[in-house]
Amino acid sequence: MSTSDTIEDGEVQELLKTTGTDLRQYSAQIEKEFKEVENRSIEDYIAQSQNIANLHNQIGTTSNILERMEAGLMEIQCALNNISTEITTLQKKSVSMSVQLTNRQSIRAQLSQFIEDMAVPEEMIQTIMEVPVTEKEFLTHLMELNHKLNLMKELNFKESKSSQDISEVLFKLKIKAMSKLRVYCMEQIYKFRKPMTNYQIPQNAMLKFKFFFEFILSNERGVAQDICNEYIDTMGKIYYSYFKSYSTRLAALKFEEAVSKDDLMGLEDTVTRSIFSKTSSLKNKSTVFSIGDRGDVLNQQLEAPIIVPHAQQKTRYPYESLFRSEQYALVDNACREYLFVTEFFIVRGPQAQELFNQIMGKTMTMLIVSCCLTWNEEFPFYKLLY
């Protein structure tokens, strides 16, 4: 026994002695009270026994219900597992079928396109053989024919046997189309040679069917070169003839008075001259030595319409106006020609420049020489500055 227990027992004994209570009697009383409490508890338990029995029965019933629910849920879980397995299987089958369908559609589309490209319809043959080249229907079938010819070239390069069935038909159609296109292009070029022809009209007609030359260039470069050479020869002569005639007619519109090295500003006509000097004098020195409105050529008149010689026969112009008109006509025609060449003949860069020089080179050389000669005649004193 510990010291604290000894102290507590001593305190209890001291308390009992002080109160005069007998320990045995007090113990019996406590035991009696315990018995009474136990009896009352038993009576309460007996009184609630029916409720406890009912509760026990309810718990048993609930347990049975829960067991049945558990069994049902287990069955549902098994069914769900089976459904999940079936869904997974169906999903895999669906993905597989989708891939197969996509592959079949892809093959079908490619195969259908290939069959369509390889087939030569009767309508195409009839159109290429009989329809005029200017008809829209001919252009449509010509593009289709060009596509088939390019495809046949690829198949022949791969040594495909499928191209052998249509190669002969396509070759004959190509020859026929090439013949008709060459005749058409040559006819358009020959139209430039007619007198008083506005060459922009045939050029616009050729640009409308510029695919013709693309087809010829893609399939027969020799024919394309012949057409190009014919165009160069024709247009080179036309531009040369036009600008030579235009320059000559413009020269007839300049002032009749021309300054020479013997004419001086401020010199009076009454001044005595030596026997070696010329006796002729300018009728109107103001038209030669005065600036007048010549400066307008560089300002207001720089982009004015060109001078038409046959419409201005009674009008006279200073050399600057005639020079501007000639150069403006040259720039206008050269720019239009360069744009036509690059678009119709499908050339760019150095090739376009070379082709343009072949057409306009002779004309530009002639104009440069003419300008130099005219400059020396109109402004002889210019040499004195050097």
From TrEMBL:
Keywords: Golgi apparatus, Protein transport, Transport. It comes from the Eukaryota. Its main location: Golgi. The keyword Protein transport applies. InterPro entries: Vps52, Vps52_C, Vps52_CC. It is found in: Golgi apparatus, trans-Golgi network. One of its GO terms (cellular component) is GARP complex. GO terms for biological process: endocytic recycling; Golgi to vacuole transport; lysosomal transport; protein transport; retrograde transport, endosome to Golgi. Residues 233-367 form the Vps52 C-terminal domain. Residues 44-216 form the Vps52 coiled-coil domain. It holds the Pfam family Vps52_CC. GO terms for molecular function: syntaxin binding. Belongs to the VPS52 family. This is Vacuolar protein sorting-associated protein 52 homolog. It comes from Culex pipiens (House mosquito). The lineage of its organism: Eukaryota, Metazoa, Ecdysozoa, Arthropoda, Hexapoda.
